[in-house]
Queue: 2 jobs
Job 1
Amino acid sequence: MQELTRSAAFSRFALFFLIVFVSLLPGFDGRSAAADAVETIRIGGTGSALATMRLLGEAFHDRHSGIVVKVFPSLGSSGGIKAVLEGDIDIAVASKKLSPAEKERGLVAYEYGRTPLVFVTHKTNPLSDITLKQVIDIYSGRMMNWTDGTPVRLVTRPAREASTLLLEGISAQMKKAVLSAAVRPGMTVAVTDQENADLLERLPGSFGVVSLCQLISENRGLKSLSLDGITPGKKTLADGAYRYYYDLYLVTGRRSSTASRLFVDFVFSKAGRSVLTRTGHLTAGRHR
């Protein structure tokens, strides 16, 4: 009887020792089993939309606690689309349409909204409105100082980037001015949307463009300018008074996961549209 008792005690001691030993192993986390049950949706793409995606991800997680949304740093539209094709992310957010070749490879794009292109300047600039002629003069190098004498510090974007293409599409004169700025020595060029906003915030006398959704969702300390007396916003975009904007798309792959489809559905739901509306989007009906 004593042998049985000693044996049972030894077994309990051995089990306790095993539990303690395993718990001390590198990388062991008592929450790992619960964490393994959580599914992750990986999102990346155009930098101007990333903060909005994070807000949507938080609202989505409130309704689907078993799914988390991870938003990667800026990949650009093309980089995000490529990442979906290669299986590195689940959803790309893009400010351009898919090419025929990308569609042939099974990608599907859903336009979820539009957001105005906004001309912005440093918060200390007394200017509140700018004319299209002045914008052209700034890019062409004819307007070098603001009315208070502060030098204009133009921040440009790379060729083929969405903002650059939008500017070039305004008019033939605007395109000529943008191309002129691209080859002018000493210009400040921002590669990503976040770098662009950082430079515009930091440089006194700065001038450039950002999307309204980035301006709002990242709570940027920039002064937005009306253009020829028209304020860029959802209302002026909806009634056609303001004509310069980004189209925004969610892009999924051929074998989209159930979680990814749930997220896309959420973006077009009432709750998702509420997030988009308060972050400067004119929402779109769901279509490919």
Job 2
Amino acid sequence: MSLDTAVRFSEVLMAVAFLQQSAEHLTAPLNERWLHLPRIVLAILLIASGEPLIVESLLLLIGVAALYRFHGPYNGGSDRMSMLLLTCLLLSHLAPSRQWQEIAVGYLAVQLVMSYAISGWVKVRNPDWRNGRALQNIFAVSAYPVSESLRSLAKQPALMLGLSWTMLLFEILFPLALLNATGLHAALAIAALFHLVNGCVFGLNRFLWIWIAAYPCLLWFQQRLIAN
């Protein structure tokens, strides 16, 4: 995959993620809609546009305005990834040379890898994650809209322990997927499935598309590493 192709794929997927995020605010008060209606228009233009520099610059201005309006990334990690992805893609168009384009996209790829690895490292240092209790609590007593049938899984400590360690090991070992193209494809498929399950079970739907949107850049980055 070429750098230009990876950037374009990521732009289209990012626009889809922005459409999903902004659609949630269409019934919000007017002082929220004025941010998200233009964002929807710009996301559609980004999918169809041959001028991503202008569109992404405007999207970044709206993103900064949203940070001011909500006093920071109100939706946590997905908002941070949205701004990171948008900024890196915009910088790839502003870059004065091919080398700086690669640096912008490479930085995005490294941050994506670290998002998984650091998440796993934080969990493995927590004894509640190591013994499965944290996952039990998420199913049993959290505010997430888990169905009653799924809440009953919290009563199976062996299952919670196994799922906890599966998640921990996958996240911590994720950087090793960069060593092999096939391994990276498999790791990204598993990661996408992980985000999909989180969206369906816990309502964390914003994480799905915005993380997937960065995958093409990571695939390019892995090819670039192997080529060297």
